[in-house]
Amino acid sequence: MIKKTISSLIITSAVILSSSCADGLKSIFPETPATIATPAPIAKLPLNPVAKRMINPTTGQTIKDHYISPFPPHNPIVAKGFKSGQLAGDPSTIQNNPNTGKPDNSTMKTFKLP
User: Fold this and answer.
1) pLDDT at 19
2) How far apart are CA 71 and CA 110, in angstroms?
3) How far apart are CA 19 and CA 58, in angstroms?
4) N or C: which end of the chain has fewer CB within 10 A?
């Protein structure tokens, strides 16, 4: 019986204190949490496609450091010195800069080596 009375007194006093504090906080912080803007979601980066290993048609074995680009026209790419999982670029996807008429290397599409 005593525990029920004490717990109800504690709950009642907590409610009274919180309501009086809430009025004081409203004068200090007029914005309510509902009016605070939420951050924008983080944009997902596009994943790089994975190249295919080049296979010798006569032996059926893979050719070391030779890959097939995942971008049309699917040219063969020699990636000597690269390791598995690294990014490589397909030079056939480079576009010309319209202002200068020269190839712009920043437009080259990249892919991941298997």
Assistant:
1) 52
2) 9
3) 83
4) N
The HSE-up count of residue 111 (CA atoms within 13 Å, CB side) is 23
Give the integer Cα–Cα distance in Å for 2 and 55. Answer: 84
Distance CA 114, CA 108 (A): 19
Q: Residue 47: which pLDDT band, with cuts at 50, 70 and 90?
A: confident
> Distance between CA atoms of 2 and 58, rounded to whole angstroms?
92
CB atoms within 10 A of CB 51: 22
Phi-psi region of 30 (alpha: psi -120 to 50; beta: other; left: phi over 0): alpha
